[in-house]
């Protein structure tokens, strides 16, 4: 039987983000215009709050253990236009307008390769 908190999380109007044991939510960033998936990253409470306050996508760097604003050094920021929240509020789809390539490699999307017959091949931009 679902607890009232679970019912509110799943069908109510309150934003009750459900962070994992590691303190993170998954964020899937999608181009607001083309709907192309640009990147997947993780948000902790600090990153979520910074994103909501500034309108720029912020994430938690698991490798560095720190907050980072996407594009803070490259200028390729992600301006948030809409945030969709999944049913149990442990994942977000962030519709954003990219100011440049979303991937640190310079590719438009981090998903620039497809798996074909056990090998990776570059997808045409």
TrEMBL record:
Domain of life: Bacteria
Coiled coil: none
Assigned EC number: 3.5.4.19
Recorded GO MF terms: phosphoribosyl-AMP cyclohydrolase activity
Annotated binding of Mg(2+), by residue: 86, 88, 90
Catalytic activity, as annotated: 1-(5-phospho-beta-D-ribosyl)-5'-AMP + H2O = 1-(5-phospho-beta-D-ribosyl)-5-[(5-phospho-beta-D-ribosylamino)methylideneamino]imidazole-4-carboxamide
Principal subcellular localisation of the protein: cytoplasm
Keywords, sorted A to Z: Amino-acid biosynthesis, Cytoplasm, Histidine biosynthesis, Hydrolase, Magnesium, Metal-binding, Zinc
Residues noted as binding Zn(2+) in the record, renumbered to the chain: 87, 103, 110
Domain Phosphoribosyl-AMP cyclohydrolase: 39-112
Name of the top EC class for this enzyme: hydrolase
Pathway(s) of this molecule: Amino-acid biosynthesis; L-histidine biosynthesis; L-histidine from 5-phospho-alpha-D-ribose 1-diphosphate: step 3/9
The protein's required cofactors: Mg(2+); Zn(2+)
A Pfam cross-reference name: PRA-CH
Cell location: Cytoplasm
Cofactor annotation remark: Binds 1 Mg(2+) ion per subunit. Binds 1 zinc ion per subunit.
Membrane-spanning intervals of the chain: none
Primary role: Catalyzes the hydrolysis of the adenine ring of phosphoribosyl-AMP.
Record family assignment: Belongs to the PRA-CH family.
Subunit structure of this chain's protein: Homodimer.
Protein name, UniProt field: Phosphoribosyl-AMP cyclohydrolase
Source organism of the structure: Alteriqipengyuania abyssalis
């Amino acid at each position: 039987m679902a607890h009232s908190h679970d019912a509110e999380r799943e069908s109510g109007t309150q934003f009750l983000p459900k962070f994992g044991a590691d303190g993170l939510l998954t964020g899937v960033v999608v181009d607001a215009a083309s709907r192309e998936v640009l990147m997947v990253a993780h948000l902790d409470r600090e990153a979520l709050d910074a994103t909501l306050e500034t309108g720029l996508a912020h994430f938690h760097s698991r490798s560095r253990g720190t907050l980072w604003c996407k594009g803070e050094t490259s200028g390729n920021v992600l301006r948030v236009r809409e945030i969709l929240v999944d049913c149990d509020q442990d994942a977000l789809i962030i519709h954003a307008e990219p100011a440049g390539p979303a991937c640190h490699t310079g590719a438009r999307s981090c998903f620039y390769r497809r798996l074909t017959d056990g090998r990776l091949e570059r997808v045409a931009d």
